[in-house]
Write a structure and sequence with these properties.
- The chain is of the alpha/beta class.
- The chain has two domains: 84 residues, Leucine Dehydrogenase, chain A, domain 1 (Rossmann fold); 124 residues, NAD(P)-binding Rossmann-like Domain (Rossmann fold, 3-Layer(aba) Sandwich).
- Helix content is 42%, strand content 15%.
- A six-stranded parallel β-sheet has the order 1-11-8-7-5-6, sandwiched between helices. Strands 3-2-4 form a three-stranded parallel β-sheet, sandwiched between helices. The chain has a two-stranded antiparallel ribbon with strand order 9-10.
- Helix 6 crosses helix 10.
- The longest helix is centred in the last third of the chain and has 25 residues.
- The N and C termini lie far apart (52 Å).
- Bound molecules: NADP nicotinamide-adenine-dinucleotide phosphate.
- The site of NADP nicotinamide-adenine-dinucleotide phosphate has 26 residues, from helix 10.
């Protein structure tokens, strides 16, 4: 029988445990979120993050900036948050408007407040086997979901489709740390299905609706669908054709209800992690 890797249920469990840790604290962890422009999807994500943060007792400060905010003005906002000792964690909601250099913005966030773990110092630590201040939220959520269902990673062939800096690459480092044999695919990969068919763990993060069908999946493989694509019909589609793939996979995430809630849970756990890091700075 195919196991459903229920990210919604698992995330609720993680958030209840997190709320328990936060409840006795006098000073609550505080997350600042900068959102630039009116991207409707970004607004939905930020509202959701704020709602979940409040539910576990994390304070949130949302800083909405207009679409025409200059890069310099955005960097100044980050500097202020970096200096503000009441703020534990900073998130700049992506994507940013085209006139802003995203990598410059990410580099400006102090590594010890970098709740997404995207700053090159944190990514460099991750890539070199060190311990970053925070692990990128989506890969972290995926690893936690695999752990929750006791899926063995060591020695398995993990195939990731998508090589972005926020999902594919950091996830590859994290799976390598767990002794998987990792293959990272992208749009120039030749004969994709011959690679996917050899995967014990297949993780799809492309945003290409229904890219993966049953013929591309090894029987009993673990399939994780990260992709989110909104069709012209207004419906959301994942990378994986759930109906057919769930017939062959040994375990599979629903989408929605798989990776998305785990990403938010990881964000809030990261905020608490950074809060503790700051406490250790001030206590020492
Ligand atoms: P991205 O930066 O757009 O990268 C997409 C990756 O997919 C690229 O590496 C691209 O290859 C590869 N790709 C595209 N078409 C392909 C194809 N036909 N065959 C093989 N590879 C292909 O995406 P991202 O930011 O990582 O996000 C990926 C998806 O996950 C999006 O749908 C996003 O909305 C979703 N997402 C969901 C969550 C969540 O919490 N649920 C979190 C983050 C992202 P090239 O590098 O060669 O262009």
């Amino acid at each position: 029988m195919t196991i459903l890797l229920d990210g919604k249920k698992t995330s609720v469990k993680l958030l209840i445990a997190l709320a328990e840790k936060i409840r006795p604290l006098n000073k609550k962890p505080k997350l600042a979120v900068i959102i630039v422009g009116d991207n409707p999807a970004s607004k939905i994500y930020v509202d959701l993050k704020q709602k979940r943060a409040e539910a576990v007792g994390i304070e949130s400060l949302i800083i909405p900036l207009s679409e025409d905010t200059s890069q310099e003005a955005l960097l100044e906002h980050i500097d202020i948050l970096n200096e503000d000792s009441s703020i534990d964690a900073i998130l700049v909601q992506l994507p940013l408007p085209a006139h802003i250099d995203t990598s410059k913005v990410i580099r400006r966030i102090a590594p010890y407040k970098d709740v997404d773990g995207f700053n090159p110092i944190n990514i460099g630590l991750l890539a070199s086997g060190g311990i970053p201040s925070a692990y990128p939220c989506t890969p972290c959520g995926i690893i936690k979901l695999l752990n929750e269902y006791k899926i063995n990673i060591e020695g398995k062939h993990a195939v990731i489709i998508g090589r972005s800096n926020i999902v594919g690459k950091p996830l590859a480092y994290m799976l390598l740390e767990k002794n998987a044999t990792v293959t990272l695919c992208h749009s120039k990969t030749q004969n994709l299905s011959s690679v996917t068919k050899s995967a014990d763990i297949l993780i799809c993060a492309t945003g290409q609706p229904n890219l993966i069908n049953a013929q591309m999946v090894k029987p009993n493989a673990v399939v994780i669908d990260v992709g989110v694509f909104r069709g012209d019909d207004g419906k959301l589609y994942g990378d994986v054709d759930f109906t057919s793939v769930s017939q062959v996979a040994g375990a599979i995430t629903p989408n929605p209800g798989g990776v998305g809630p785990m990403t938010i849970a990881s964000l809030l756990e990261n905020t608490y992690r950074l809060y503790n890091l700051h406490k250790s700075f001030t206590e020492n």
